[in-house]
Specification:
Blueprint (H helix, E strand, L loop, with lengths): L8 E5 L3 H11 L4 E5 L3 H21 L4 H9 L1 E4 L10 E4 L5 H14 L5 E4 L6 H5 L8 E6 L8 E6 L5 H13 L3 E4 L8 H17 L5 H12 L5 H8 L1 H14 L12 H6 L34 E3 L5 H10 L4 E2 L9 E4 L6 H7 L7 E4 L9 E5 L5 H11 L6 E4 L7 H17 L5 H12 L5 H8 L1 H15 L8 H8 L12
Parallel strand pairs: 1-2, 1-4, 2-3, 4-5, 5-6, 7-8, 9-10, 9-11, 11-12, 13-14
Antiparallel strand pairs: 6-7, 12-13
Length: 505
C-alpha cells in the first residue's frame, strides 16, 4: 500500500463502526487523523479496534509492520470537539439525526482551516439541510462511505445545493487517492444506493405479501438465475428488517409517496414481533438455519401427457429442453385434448396467457422464459388447474437434476418482476440526473454487491424484453409502480443502448 499524495489533517467525529473504519482508511493512506466522540471511551475502543485490524492485515501479509506502526502513530484521540486542532477535512459520522448533525457542523466550522471541507457521512439526510447550519454552506458536502469502510470501496459524493464545484472536485480527488471509487450523486432522499436497493428487496416483499412464493423460493431464483450472492430475503435478514423498514419509509416519504417505493403491508408487524433477522436469531429464516427447511420435494412417478409449446421466441429452446428430458412434444398449431399446453409469458400470468391463446386453463402451465433453464426452472399454473398436470410437468423438469420452483400464478413470475423494478428505478435515477448511468451500475455492484448493475442485467436479458415485461405488468395489474420509465421506453423503441445518456446541448 502506498501513501496517497493527497494528505493532510482529518477530523473524524463519531468513533462508532463507521467512524473508526473511515479513520483507518485515511490513516493508512498518510493522513493525520483526529478522532473524537461524545463518549471518550468510544475513541479508545476505536483506536484499539483499528490496531487489532491492522495486526490481522500484517499477519496476512497484506500490510507491512512498519506501515501499520506509522498508521497507528497518525491516529490522534481527542477528548472533545473543542479540543480539535485545525484540520483540512472533517467527516461527521454521528447518529442519523439532522439536529445533532447541524450542531456538530456549527462547532466544526469554527475550528476548520479557511479552505477546509466539511463532510457528512449521512446515508440519507439532506446535505443542504445540514449545510444550512454553517456560515459557509458552499464547503459542505456528503461523503457517504459504506460499512466496513476499509473493505467497501464505494463512496457516494453528494454536493448540496450550495456546494461549489471546486469542493466537489477536491472531495472526489481525495476519495480516488484513497483507492476508493467515488460516484457523484444528487442530494435526494436515500441518495443512490439506498434508492436502487428498493427494487430488489421491495419487490421481493411484495411477492411475499401476495402469497406468490416463500422467501426461500425467491432467494433461490435470484441466486441461481442471476448469480446474486444473496437473495433479497437473505439481504433483509443480514441488514436487519428494522433498519430496512426505516429506509423504506424514508425513501417513500422523501419521494412524495412514489409508487415504486411503496412499503409492503406486514413489514411493520414483523418488526414489532422482533423478527429482525440475524441479529434477533430469527427473521425470514431461523439462525442457525433449520436443515429440514431446505428439503427437496419428493418426485413421484406420474403419467406424462404430450406437451404442446406456445409459438414464439422461446418455442425452439423449450422444445429442445423438453425433448432432452424425454417428453413427447406436439407440433400442431393447437394442443390436442390430451396435451399439456406450455406457455412462456413475459409480463403476464398464466391465466392471461391461457386466455389470450384460448387454451384450456386446467391443462396449461407456464415456464419463465427469462430464467436460466440450466440452473433453475420456475413454473406456475392458473387457478383451477389440474394438480396432476402441474405435478407431472414439474417432475419432468426435474429429470436432469435441475431444481424446479413452483409458484402461484403471478404476472411476471419472480425474476421478471424483480428485474423490472431494479431496471426501472435505475432508469428513473438516470432520467432525473440522480447519477450518471455508468455510476449507477458501479454503485449497484460496489455498494449492494450485485453481480451486475441493473443496466447490464437489462442488456443481457434484452432491453426490449425488459420493456415489454414492464409494459405488460403495468397494463395487466394497473399498478403505477410498474409503469414504463420514459428512459427505458425511448431506448427500447429506438433500439439504443440502455445506458446511453442524452443531452440538451
Amino acid at each position: 500500500m502506498t501513501q496517497s499524495p493527497s494528505t493532510g489533517t482529518l477530523a473524524v467525529v463519531g468513533a462508532g463502526a463507521m467512524g473508526r473504519g473511515i479513520a483507518q482508511v485515511f490513516a493508512t493512506h498518510g493522513w493525520r487523523v483526529q478522532l473524537v466522540d461524545a463518549r471518550p471511551a468510544a475513541v479508545s475502543d476505536a483506536v484499539a479496534a483499528i490496531g487489532q485490524h491492522l495486526d490481522r492485515l500484517v499477519a496476512k501479509g497484506s500490510l507491512s509492520r512498519d506501515h501499520a506502526t506509522a498508521s497507528m502513530a497518525r491516529l490522534l484521540p481527542v477528548d472533545s470537539l473543542t479540543a480539535l486542532e485545525p484540520f483540512d477535512l472533517a467527516i461527521e459520522a454521528v447518529v442519523e439525526d439532522a439536529a445533532v448533525k447541524r450542531h456538530v457542523f456549527e462547532q466544526l466550522e469554527a475550528m476548520a482551516r479557511p479552505q477546509a471541507i466539511l463532510a457528512s457521512n449521512t446515508s440519507s439526510l439532506s446535505i443542504a439541510a445540514i449545510a444550512a447550519a454553517c456560515q459557509q454552506p458552499e464547503r459542505v458536502i456528503g461523503l457517504h462511505f459504506f460499512n466496513p469502510a476499509p473493505l467497501m470501496k464505494l463512496v457516494e459524493v453528494i454536493p448540496g445545493a450550495r456546494t461549489t464545484q471546486a469542493v466537489t472536485a477536491r472531495a472526489t480527488a481525495i476519495i480516488q487517492a484513497l483507492g476508493h471509487h467515488p460516484v457523484t450523486v444528487a442530494d435526494r432522499p436515500g441518495f443512490l444506493v439506498n434508492t436502487l436497493s428498493r427494487g430488489y428487496t421491495g419487490e421481493a416483499l411484495r411477492i411475499l405479501a401476495e402469497g406468490v412464493a416463500e422467501p426461500s423460493v425467491v432467494d433461490h431464483v435470484m441466486t441461481r438465475c442471476l448469480d446474486f450472492r444473496m437473495g433479497p430475503f437473505e439481504v433483509l435478514d443480514l441488514t436487519g428488517l428494522d433498519v430496512s423498514a426505516a429506509v423504506m419509509r424514508q425513501v417513500y416519504d422523501g419521494y412524495w409517496q412514489e409508487p415504486r417505493f411503496q412499503p409492503t403491508p406486514g413489514v411493520a408487524a414483523r418488526v414489532a414481533a422482533g423478527l429482525l433477522g440475524r441479529k434477533s436469531g430469527k427473521g425470514f429464516y431461523a439462525y442457525p438455519p433449520d436443515p429440514s427447511s431446505a428439503a427437496e420435494p419428493v418426485a413421484h412417478a406420474l403419467p406424462l401427457p404430450p406437451i404442446w409449446v406456445e409459438p414464439g421466441p422461446w418455442q425452439l429452446g423449450a422444445t429442445t429442453l423438453l425433448r432432452s428430458l424425454g417428453a413427447e412434444v406436439e407440433a400442431a398449431a393447437r394442443p390436442s385434448a390430451a396435451a399439456i399446453a406450455l406457455v412462456t409469458p413475459v409480463g403476464l400470468d398464466c391465466t392471461e396467457a391461457a386466455a389470450r391463446l384460448t387454451l384450456c386453463p386446467a391443462r396449461t402451465v407456464a415456464l419463465d422464459p427469462l430464467a436460466r433453464w440450466d440452473r433453475c426452472r420456475v413454473v406456475m399454473a392458473a387457478p383451477g388447474a389440474d394438480p396432476a398436470i402441474g405435478a407431472a410437468f414439474a417432475n419432468l423438469l426435474r429429470r436432469d437434476g435441475v431444481p424446479v420452483c413452483r409458484i402461484r400464478d403471478s404476472a411476471g413470475f419472480i425474476l421478471q418482476r424483480l428485474v423490472v423494478m431494479m431496471v426501472q428505478i435505475a432508469c428513473d435515477a438516470a432520467q432525473s440526473r440522480l447519477a450518471a448511468p455508468a455510476d449507477i451500475d458501479r454503485a449497484a455492484m460496489l455498494g449492494l454487491g450485485y453481480p451486475q448493475g441493473p443496466f447490464a442485467i437489462a442488456r443481457d436479458l434484452g432491453i426490449t424484453t425488459v420493456y415489454d415485461a414492464a409494459y405488460r405488468l403495468f397494463a395487466l395489474t394497473g399498478e403505477a409502480r410498474y409503469r414504463p420509465s420514459p428512459w427505458l421506453r425511448r431506448r427500447a423503441r429506438l433500439s439504443l443502448p440502455i445506458d446511453l445518456d442524452d443531452s440538451a446541448d
